[in-house]
TrEMBL record:
Pfam families: Hist_deacetyl. Residues 28-345 form the Histone deacetylase domain. Keywords: Hydrolase, Metal-binding, Zinc. Belongs to the histone deacetylase family. Its cofactor is Zn(2+). InterPro entries: HDACs (IPR000286), His_deacetylse_dom (IPR023801), His_deacetylse_dom_sf (IPR037138), Ureohydrolase_dom_sf (IPR023696). This is Histone deacetylase family protein.
Length: 351
């Protein structure tokens, strides 16, 4: 399986995030990707490639998923931040004020002039710092997703978009959960646009893929399935319940499988069987797997208890679905183990 890796990922390197009411060092660090890359090399798992995607095609693929007013804001956000105060060049920008989700309480259609207000309008948490290289890194990550989609469309059994920042929490016009551009959604939409009639997204990150769900919620041509920590107690808290089944034309095409904190592999695996069955019943002709490794027992911010060897089984079960598959790299914060766990899954998939 080919891996498309983001050469600019380390330009996005946050200093601190707001976590449980305090500032702590960022969990989402460049070393995460470096460990996966090193492990792929060590185990000679397929070739490593840079994404070769033209600017026009890339911008078009991003625009299929994200609103123009959002991407324009992201592209210029750092310059605006520094223009406010030259000393900001030494600090990351972090949102601190948001409109309520209750639409009647605040206007979200009017774009405020104030930068902090716009930073809040386009985000949903204070855990996702934005810095000088965020846009370049995120955009180049989207190029990996597009390159992987093209590879699979061209007949490859699977491809891996190895990138950070991750993507599955980013929605049409919002960032959060360390995510800015939704790489999995960009891959899914690209597969649709390349002619795949029905694309499924099967999100196995510990956290609910709220961005992806929001992007495709009213669509019948892209099914979204997510296995994750129950939002009653787990981030992102406000989406990911089993009762969310899609709306309008998309009714019945979103499946959430929330599991309690503490869930181990046998129950998680049963959920994966259910998820794969749903993808098959849907009749998908291509699959995108936002691959979060934060289901691992050693993850510092998550609550499932999967072991490193369990990821072999995950890879094997996903391979049994026999669908052209794009994997995108999402969460996973047990940095020392993230490479081994990710490559266990991918290697087993290829066996
Ligand atoms: N009190 C991904 O795995 N912080 N994002 C959690 C809990 C945000 C995770 C705070 C976790 C985001 C891609
Ligand atoms: Zn996660």
């Amino acid at each position: 399986m080919k891996t498309f890796h983001n050469p600019h990922h380390a330009l996005h390197q946050g200093r601190e995030e707001m976590f449980r009411g305090r500032m702590v060092p960022c969990h989402e660090v460049p070393a995460r990707l470096d460990y996966v890359l090193a492990e792929l090399q060590r185990r000679s798992q397929g070739g490593l490639f840079l994404p070769e995607v033209g600017d026009t095609d890339l911008d078009a693929a991003i625009a299929r998923v994200h609103d123009a007013r959002y991407t324009q804001f992201l592209a210029g956000a750092w310059d605006e931040w520094v223009a406010m105060d030259p000393a900001n060049a030494q600090r990351d920008a972090l949102p601190s004020v948001w409109p309520l989700g209750n639409q009647d309480a605040f206007r979200t259609d009017v774009l405020p002039q104030n930068f902090a207000a716009r930073l809040g309008l386009f985000s949903f948490d204070s855990g996702s710092p934005l810095m000088a290289g965020t846009w370049t890194a995120a955009r180049s990550g989207a190029a990996c997703a597009l390159a992987a989609a093209r590879e699979v469309h061209g007949g490859a059994r699977a491809a891996f978009a190895l990138t950070r920042p991750p993507g599955h929490h980013a929605g049409p016009d919002f960032f959060g959960g360390y995510c800015f551009l939704n790489n999995g959604a960009i891959a899914a939409q690209a597969l649709r646009d390349l002619g795949h009639a029905k694309v499924a997204v099967l999100d196995i990150d510990y956290h609910h893929g709220n961005g992806t769900q929001t992007i495709f919620y009213e669509r019948a041509d892209v099914m979204t399935v997510s296995i994750h920590g129950d939002p009653a107690t787990e981030y992102p808290f406000f989406l990911g319940h089993a009762s969310e089944r899609g709306a309008g034309a998309g009714e019945g095409f979103n499946l959430n499988i929330p599991l309690p904190r503490g869930t181990g592999f046998s129950a998680w695996c049963a959920a994966l069987d259910t998820a794969i069955e749903a993808v098959e019943d849907f009749g998908a002709d291509a699959l995108v797997v936002p691959m979060g490794m934060d289901t691992f027992k050693g993850d510092p911010i998550s609550g499932f208890t999967l072991e490193s060897s369990d990821y072999d089984t995950v890879g094997r079960l996903l391979a049994a679905a026999s669908l052209p598959t794009v994997f995108t790299f999402e969460g996973g914060y047990a940095v020392d183990e993230v490479g081994v766990n990710a490559v266990n899954l991918l290697e087993a998939y290829c066996r």
